[in-house]
């Protein structure tokens, strides 16, 4: 009797479970996923139907709002044996169903070329009346670290603390940095201090044995990149010699500048002196030879044609200037020659005439009677 009652209870439980469960999403993947930007994600959403689920099949994928101030965003649906993908402009062309026929029990979707803005909670809802079920998945899109830059900051001399740094310009935090030596002993110096968050390493009291090649790895949860650095520990520099060289160089530069300024000053005074002396008239300087020869040649030509002793009233008409125009009858031109006015001759003193390069000539005087005095 008790066995029969137990069997009846089990059958009733199965019937009740079937009526309560009906349509069921069977996917058991992770509820939280992290992906790097540019990658592709697959949201798994598989389901089974119960015999009593006879209504039309509807599948909805929604990006839930991060707060109550915003609305949920539909991204893709399946209804009436058709797929609708153009709900969300940001994901247009990047979201698709995995199966060409979701009625087979696969409502999973793919989103390609992920962006940081795709981060959020995605809801898969499958409905076939009277059955309905849903599943949420949290997506976090991260940026993997960019290729870091390795460099030495400050001096790399022996006996000093050498600081090496490594930094990625891009990447979603938290980013961890690790340093390792990839040459020689491949072991970091015992005096090295590593900062994994800032990406720096300090080698205390460096020696030549610390020279070598070092590698820095920048890493977060979605990717990693690396860079290498060749460190050369050099002997300490001669500070006193460097200062002395700088002082001597400065003095030589000042001396050269002084010489250039002095030469410019002398050249300027020389040009000024030549310009002033070029306009002076000196009485003790003989006249130019070209003017003297011209004057003498003129006198010589005149002496060949006539002499002073041959001048007389009877032949003075031969030296009178001949008119170059036709006479015009007027009272002014009919006056007797004795009334013709002549402009006064300009007189030049003998010393001034010699200074000007001329030669004084004595002209014989003539009396009223016509005889030469």
Could you characterize the architecture of this molecule?
By secondary structure, this protein is an alpha+beta fold. The chain has four helices and 18 strands. Strands 2-11-10-5-6-7 form a six-stranded mixed sheet, with no helix packed on it. It has a four-stranded antiparallel sheet with strand order 12-13-16-15, with no helix packed on it. A three-stranded antiparallel sheet has the order 3-9-8, with no helix packed on it. A hairpin with an 8-residue loop joins strand 12 and strand 13. The longest helix is centred in the last third of the chain and has 39 residues, at 239-277. It starts with a helix and ends in an 18-residue tail after the last helix. The model is unreliable at 1-6, 8-20, 291-314 and 327-335 (pLDDT under 50).
Strand order of the largest sheet: 2-11-10-5-6-7
Query: Helicity, in percent?
Result: 10-25%
Count up the helices. 4
Described by strand count, sense and barrel closure, the largest sheet is:
6 strands, mixed
Radius of gyration: 60 Å
Please state the average pLDDT score: 79
* Euclidean distance between termini CA atoms: 195 Å
Number of E-type strands: 18
Beta-strand percent range: 25-35%
Order of helices and strands: HEEEEEEEEEEEEEEEEEEHHH
Shape: elongated
Low-confidence stretches: 1-6, 8-20, 291-314, 327-335
Structural class, from helix and strand content? alpha+beta
